[in-house]
């Protein structure tokens, strides 16, 4: 499985990192590393995330890397990471 990160998602990860880094660069790095590690597991278990109720018809799934939601779509032999947002944010 190939994992594709959208440009928007990369920008969001940078924003998450920068926001957390204002308090602690080490915590910021750990959060981003945790997100990447959780996404890597999708290579083996692409259907492990739940189907996002708001996007049920288009097959978007999500994994929770508290306090963030990582939204993705499986398309053949690739997984596209379409968004990362805080649990309190609305889609």
Describe this structure as you would to a colleague.
The protein is α+β, with helices and mostly antiparallel strands and 91 residues long. The protein has a single domain, classed as RelE-like (YaeB-like fold, 2-Layer Sandwich), CATH 3.30.2310.20. The chain is built from two helices and five strands; from the N terminus they run βααββββ. The chain has helices at residues 7-21, 25-40; strands at 2-5, 50-51, 60-65, 68-75, 78-86.
Question: Mean pLDDT across all residues, rounded?
Answer: 92
Largest beta sheet, briefly? 5 strands, mixed
Number of helices: 2
Q: Can you identify the CATH class?
A: Alpha Beta
Please render the helix and strand layout as text.
Elements: E1 2-5, H1 7-21, H2 25-40, E2 50-51, E3 60-65, E4 68-75, E5 78-86
Parallel strand pairs: 1-5
Antiparallel strand pairs: 2-3, 3-4, 4-5
What tags apply to this protein structure?
91 residues; alpha+beta; YaeB-like fold; 32% strand
Short structural description:
The chain is an alpha+beta fold and 91 residues long.
